[in-house]
Structures are given as structure tokens and as C-alpha cells.
Design goal:
Elements (H helix, E strand, L loop, with lengths): L42 H4 L29 H6 L2 H12 L3 H5 L19 H28 L21 H14 L1 H10 L9 H12 L6 H12 L9 E2 L5 E2 L3 E7 L5 E7 L7 H15 L8 H15 L2 H14 L6 E2 L12 E5 L4 E2 L8 H22 L1 E2 L8 E4 L4 E4 L6 E2 L2 H16 L2 H10 L9 H14 L1 H4 L4 E2 L5 H15 L6 H19 L3 E2 L1 H18 L1
Parallel strand pairs: 5-10
Antiparallel strand pairs: 1-3, 2-3, 3-4, 4-6, 7-9, 8-11, 9-10, 12-13
Helix pairs in contact: 5-6, 5-10, 6-8, 7-8, 7-10, 10-11, 13-19, 13-20, 14-15, 14-16, 16-18
Length: 562
């Protein structure tokens, strides 16, 4: 357990004291004799080997800044916590993996629901699709009401307590219409639909859950002629001469683009992500159309601040449509994690990357949510490393890959490594934000409700004019979410009831909230929720308390030395 005497705090609480060595430009490095959970320092750091050179400047105007001097990210947490027997059992478990898995992950493939269908590339074509959907929904709702009236039926209101409830617009026929339209137009509407699909019945009615679950599973792919047109526009008419081979049928299709397997002339397999035509130019109109659709099919509570939420998502989607920006973010993370034995970031192939085409070396493994049958100690190690990385992204790099989709994390049992993918939603965090946020987490870990509320005001989560009922619900929510960091020893994610208890507080907060959350919190909380949900899915038992306490001490040690 972390000794409390060793915990450092903000400058106003702790005398100025330097420890460890200085890195480039005077930036403090982690003291060489300190390792997570008391394990021995990694050989690379103990040997005195210097860190990689500072990161290159990011793509101009990309909004994806260099996170500063590059730092090696070591698997201190896992190595410090694992004994020889643990490592032996993990290795034995990996030997049991079949030859096909050991050689590499099974090829990702499209959903059986996916079908080839051209993407409407013009704004007029996309508007026509949404207009046709609105007319179809109206007619479908009238038909549903008329059918119930003729049958003498009065359907009860949805009793699920969901934020977005049911309505006559959400008949089975209309569900099919909505899914079909979102899968056809793709882009921002489909992306937001996929984000909503991971919500539970505290937020979405069963009908809306059904819609967005189908949307997540049913992304269509564009035909070969449309794919070839994008490649020719981005890479030149001679694009085929730049690769040894190219599979015209994609192995993955999502909201903004689809991914094809290619092979370079040197034999390297690559994943080529190709953006759907027209999606970048239609983000704003797609978001407005989807908001109109939600208003049509559900009552949106004022405390949801739907317009603000969708405006933030719109900005993130604009980032994701800039593949040059994503390439710069991927290269930054590749350097930040250089030499790390557990995490790997594929290399960007610059000569085959443009605004609408992103080419990277092909990763291996399976999505982390498919690792539920691995031995407990291996699952613990995966989740400990992932949570450690997430906290380091926020409190050390101040730069985070915020897309919590589990398919963005691939575990290769043969290499015992996790490959990180999809950096389009990466974003920076200000020093002021992380200063306050780390204190909110610390207050929750310490059980200090008054400080949780004060720091929430500093972060502008609350204005100070909310009702007492809202303040209590807000603090209760933070305390529940902070439980992993307040529990000494191992926290068992497999037995926690966090989601159910937070769900009970959501209606109160939506009724009384006076201001939308700070912009940074949308992506951050999406990532943290995804990380916690993954730990729950893998039934991980990990020392969150000592993990956070050490990171907290390191954070203020760096700030005092800055």
C-alpha cells in the first residue's frame, strides 16, 4: 500500500522539494528510484538511457499539439505488482493460445448486416435522405396511432425511467426507417448514433436503444467505384502503383470511413482508412438533422443541454475527418510510448496519408472485450496498464486519445501487447483543468465532500446557484465514481454497482442542472467510462488506490519543479 507520508500535494499544501533528475529544458523526470507499487525501476530507466528527442511540431492548424518533451512510458504497474509465479502463469496461458491466434489475430471482418451502398456525397442528396425519413416517420406514426385506435388499444407510457422516452414515432416500422437512413448517409449522424448506442436504459428508452444498437452493428460500405474515386483524388491516378496489392472489399466500416487491407512493395501489410465522400462537408447539417430527429421522437429535458452536447460532438467530428491531424496525433503517441513493452502504436505511412486517406501498419490481436476468458492475472495486467495509461494521458501528457470504443484496443496474446488504434478524437487538456480535476479525484478518494463541491465549482461543473438537491446528487455521483481510488488494496470491478447507482441520480441532475459541463469533460468522461466499463467486462481486480496516489504525488512533484 502507498505510504501516506510519501504523498505529495499541490504547492500551497506541500513545501517545495525537488526529487529525481531533470529532463530536457529542465522538465522534471520521474525519480529513478520510484516505481509503481514498490517494484524495481525498469532497466531502461535505471540504466540512465536518455528519453527520445522532443516531439516534432504537429500538423499546422490541426489542433493536435505536440505534448512536449517525449517521455518513455513504462509498464511499472504490471512489473512492480507481478511476482515470478504470476509471470509464469501468464506465459503458460499464452502458450495455450492456438497457432492461428499466436501468429496474429483473426482477420477483422464486416458485420453480416453490412451491405454495399453508395454514400450520398452532396448536401442535397443527404438532405433528401433526412427529408424522406421525416416524412416516413410522420406517416408511420399516424399509421401506428390509427392502428391502436381501431383496435381500441391505449399503449402505456414507457415505465423504464429513461431520459429519452418512447413515443408513437418509435414503432417497429419507423425503427427500420431510422436505421436504414443513418446507415445510408453515415457521417456525423451515424457517429452520434453509435455513441448513443453504448448508453443504457437510464438514458435511452428500449426503442431508441434498439435503433442505435442496430446502427452500431450495421454500418454499410461504399462500392468499389466510389472507393477508387476517393483514392484517385487523394493519392493520384497512379495510386495502385504505390502499393503491391489492395483489397477492394473493406474489412471494417464505420461512421466516417472504411478500412481496407493493403500490402506495400516491401511486403508490409497496412490498413488504409478511406473517408466517405461528402461527410466532412456535411457535419453541421447532419448534426442539425439528427437533433431534429431526436426532438421528433423524444422529449429532451432542458438539463441535457442537447444543443451544447451536439455542438461539442460536431467539433470532435471535424477533428476526426482530418486524417492528417489524426496521423500527427498517432505519431505523437508513438513517440510518447516509444520503448514501452506493453503498448504499441502502429507506424503511419506518410506517403500514403492525406486529408481523406490514412495508412498505418496493420495491427494484430483481438478487441479487449473478447479477452474475457483469459486467466485472471492476465486480465488484471491488461486493465491495470490501460487505467494507468488513461490517467497518464490526462495528468502527465495532458493529451488523450478519447475514443473509448473497445475495438480501438487490440490484445495480441502471442506478443502479450495491446495495440492502440484510432487517434482522430485525441485532444489536449489545459494545465488549469488538470490542476482542478486531479483535486476532484483526490477529494473523492479521501471522502471529502466539501472539497468535491468546491473543485466542481472551480471546474464550472456547477455555478453555485443550484438547489441543495442538485448539489447532493452531484457530489454523490462523484463519490461513487471515485470509489475505485478510495478503496485500499484491490478494487473488484466485477462486483461493483457503479452504473446502477449513478443511473438513479441522473434524473435529479437533469431536472436541476443550470449549466452544461465544461467542454473538455465530454470526451474525458466518455474515455473514463469506457475504461471502467472494460475493467468491469473483464472482471479485473486491480490496486486503483495506490495507482492514483502515486500518480497524484508525481503530478505535484513535476508541477513544483516546473
Amino acid at each position: 500500500m502507498w505510504p501516506e507520508a510519501g504523498v505529495r500535494g499541490p504547492p500551497e499544501l506541500v513545501p517545495r522539494k525537488r526529487g529525481g533528475t531533470s529532463g530536457p529544458n529542465g522538465a522534471p523526470q520521474q525519480p529513478p528510484d520510484v516505481c509503481l507499487l514498490g517494484g524495481p525501476p525498469p532497466a531502461l530507466r535505471a540504466s540512465g538511457q536518455s528519453a527520445p528527442p522532443p516531439l516534432p511540431a504537429a500538423h499546422a492548424g490541426s489542433g493536435c499539439p505536440s505534448p512536449g518533451p517525449s517521455r518513455l512510458f513504462h509498464r511499472d504497474a504490471a512489473l512492480g505488482a507481478l511476482a515470478a509465479d504470476d509471470i509464469r502463469r501468464a506465459r503458460e496461458a499464452r502458450r495455450k493460445v492456438g497457432p492461428e491466434q499466436a501468429a496474429g489475430a483473426p482477420r477483422q471482418k464486416l458485420s453480416e448486416r453490412a451491405r454495399e451502398r453508395a454514400v450520398p456525397a452532396s448536401r442535397v442528396g443527404r438532405l433528401a435522405s433526412f427529408g424522406g425519413l421525416a416524412v416516413g416517420l410522420g406517416l408511420g406514426a399516424l399509421a401506428e396511432v390509427a392502428k391502436d385506435s381501431l383496435n381500441g388499444e391505449t399503449k402505456p407510457r414507457d415505465g423504464s425511467g429513461s431520459i429519452l422516452g418512447s413515443s408513437p414515432f418509435l414503432s417497429e416500422a419507423n425503427v427500420v426507417r431510422i436505421v436504414d437512413t443513418l446507415c445510408k448517409v453515415r457521417g456525423a449522424a451515424l457517429k452520434i448514433g453509435q455513441i448513443l448506442s453504448i448508453q443504457d436504459n437510464s438514458f435511452l428508452s428500449p426503442q431508441l436503444q434498439q435503433i442505435f444498437a442496430r446502427v452500431r452493428q450495421s454500418a454499410d460500405f461504399m462500392p468499389a467505384w466510389q472507393t477508387r474515386r476517393v483514392l484517385a483524388e487523394e493519392l493520384g491516378q497512379d495510386w495502385r502503383e504505390k502499393v503491391a496489392s489492395f483489397e477492394e472489399t473493406p474489412f471494417a466500416a464505420a461512421s466516417i470511413g472504411q478500412v481496407h487491407l493493403g500490402v506495400l512493395h516491401d511486403g508490409t501489410e497496412v490498413a488504409m482508412k478511406i473517408q466517405y465522400p461528402g461527410v466532412a462537408q456535411s457535419i453541421r447539417s447532419d448534426v442539425e438533422n439528427l437533433l431534429a430527429l431526436l426532438r421528433l421522437t423524444a422529449v429532451l429535458p432542458a438539463g441535457l443541454f442537447a444543443e451544447n452536447t451536439l455542438r461539442v460532438l460536431q467539433r470532435e467530428l471535424e477533428w476526426e475527418c482530418d486524417y492528417r491531424r489524426e496521423a500527427g496525433c498517432a505519431q505523437s503517441f508513438r513517440q510518447l510510448l516509444a520503448g514501452d513493452p506493453f503498448f504499441e502504436v502502429p507506424r503511419v505511412v506518410g506517403e500514403l496519408t492525406t486529408q481523406r486517406v490514412l495508412t498505418m501498419e496493420l495491427g494484430s490481436g483481438v478487441p479487449l472485450d473478447q479477452c474475457q476468458e483469459l486467466p485472471q492475472d492476465v486480465r488484471n495486467e491488461i486493465c491495470l496498464n490501460l487505467l494507468h495509461l488513461t490517467l497518464r494521458e490526462l495528468f502527465h501528457f495532458r493529451f488523450m486519445q478519447t475514443d473509448a470504443n473497445w475495438a480501438n484496443f487490440f490484445y495480441d496474446a502471442g506478443k502479450h501487447q495491446v495495440t492502440l488504434l484510432d487517434f482522430g478524437a485525441s485532444r489536449p487538456f489545459s494545465r488549469e483543468f488538470t490542476h482542478h480535476y486531479i483535486e476532484v479525484v483526490k477529494a473523492a478518494a479521501d471522502g471529502d465532500r466539501a472539497k468535491v463541491l468546491q473543485k466542481s465549482k472551480d471546474l464550472k461543473f456547477v455555478t453555485g446557484f443550484e438547489s441543495k438537491e442538485f448539489e447532493e446528487a452531484h457530489v454523490d455521483t462523484v463519490m461513487i465514481l471515485g470509489e475505485p481510488f478510495s478503496t485500499p488494496g484491490l478494487f473488484d470491478f466485477g462486483t461493483q454497482s457503479t452504473a446502477r447507482r449513478v443511473q438513479a441520480l441522473i434524473p435529479v441532475m437533469l431536472r436541476h442542472r443550470l449549466t452544461p459541463p465544461p467542454e473538455e469533460s465530454y470526451a474525458l468522461h466518455r474515455k473514463l467510462a469506457g475504461c471502467f466499463l472494460l475493467c468491469a467486462r473483464l472482471r479485473a481486480r486491480i490496486p486503483c488506490h495506490s495507482l492514483f496516489q502515486e500518480l497524484y504525488g508525481q503530478y505535484w512533484d513535476r508541477e513544483q519543479g516546473a
